[in-house]
Amino acid sequence: MRYICILLAFLAFPLWANPGDMPAPQQLAMRYMQALTEHDYSKLEQFYDRESVFYDRTAGRKYKGERHILSFMRRAHRGVLEYDFNLEHMYNSGSFVVMIGSYHLKGPGEQFGKPGKIIEIAVPGVTTLSLDMARKRVKEHIDLIDYQTMSDQLAMQ
Questions:
Q1: What is the helix (H) or strand (E) element at residue 39, kind and residue range?
Q2: Beta-carbon neighbour count of residue 145 at 10 Å?
Q3: pTM metric for this prediction
Q4: Segments in the chain below pLDDT 70
Q5: 77: helix, coil or strand?
């Protein structure tokens, strides 16, 4: 029984961790993702400069520079009712952060070929962030999204 309690304590430790206990790159990544999913463009501006890159590698779309990235985000988020990233696992190697989870989206079907409908999807994905820790900026944001799962979910709606 004693060993089981000790084992449970070690397994539950990550649940007790405070955000301040995360490595600094992971803390910055979490603040960035919060601004992104809350559509807080004034906060997002602080994470980008003209050398920043947003690359949806699976879709083959790349935007460089604060102005182009934010313009894309505003178009992509237009009318979205809910948007979040359900983080399942995160790790970093120095200032390179990997986030594995799923993007949840609820919004107008027009953007997905379903006019007049409200669609809801949860799409698995991996987001990698290359960060400039000295300046607290995102150098490169790369998304690898499972668009086949998204397509399957849209077909059922």
A1: none
A2: 18
A3: 0.83
A4: 1-20
A5: helix
